[in-house]
Amino acid sequence: MPQTKDELQHLDASDESVRSGRLTYAFLNTLNSVPMVSAHAYLGARGIVDDLRRGADIIICGRVADASPVIAAAWYWHSWSDSDYDCLAGALVTGHLIERSAYITGGNFAGFDRFSIEDFIEPGFPIAEIEADGSCVVTKHEGTGGMVNVDTVRCQFLYELQGNIYLNSDVSAILDDITVGQAGKDR
After folding, report:
1. Quick one: pLDDT at residue 1?
2. Which listed site, 38, 77, 145, 160, has its alpha carbon 20 to 30 Å from 23?
C-alpha cells in the first residue's frame, strides 16, 4: 500500500509498464501507431468496501466506475458477499440511476409539454433507498424543484445504455426484467 503520493503508480506515458496491446489501435481510422499518452481503468467498488470495513469516514477514489460508490455503500451496509450478484446488480442499476445527479429528478427530461416549466427549475438531487434485495426507491427532498416519476426514471435509466446487459467493474446487470413503478409523490 503506497504511503505517499510519490509512491502511487501513474499510468501515463512515463510508466514503462503501459504498453500497446494487439487491439490498442483497432478502433482508430488508421492502423498506424500513435504515441501513448495515458491509460485509464475504471475501478470497481471492492476497494471502497474494504475501506468502509476498516472504518473509513472519507474515501478519496481515483477513477472508479460511476456507480461504484453507490454499489460500495449498499454492499457494505447490507453486508453482501462477492457472490450476491442480484443484489450487486440492483445496486449497479441504482447507481446508474443517480450517477448524473438531477438528471433523474427532471434535469434530463423533456416532458415540458405535460408539466409546467416551473416544475423543472432547481431540481432537487436524488436520494436512493436501496433494500437488502438490491431493489430501490429513488426520491428527493420535499420542497425542491423537479420531480421523480416513472418517466424521469425511465429517461435516466436508458441514458448511455447500449443493450440489455449493463457491464460494470464489479457485476453485470441483465436489464430484461427491470420494472419501474410510482410508489408515491416523487417516489
Report:
1. 57
2. 160
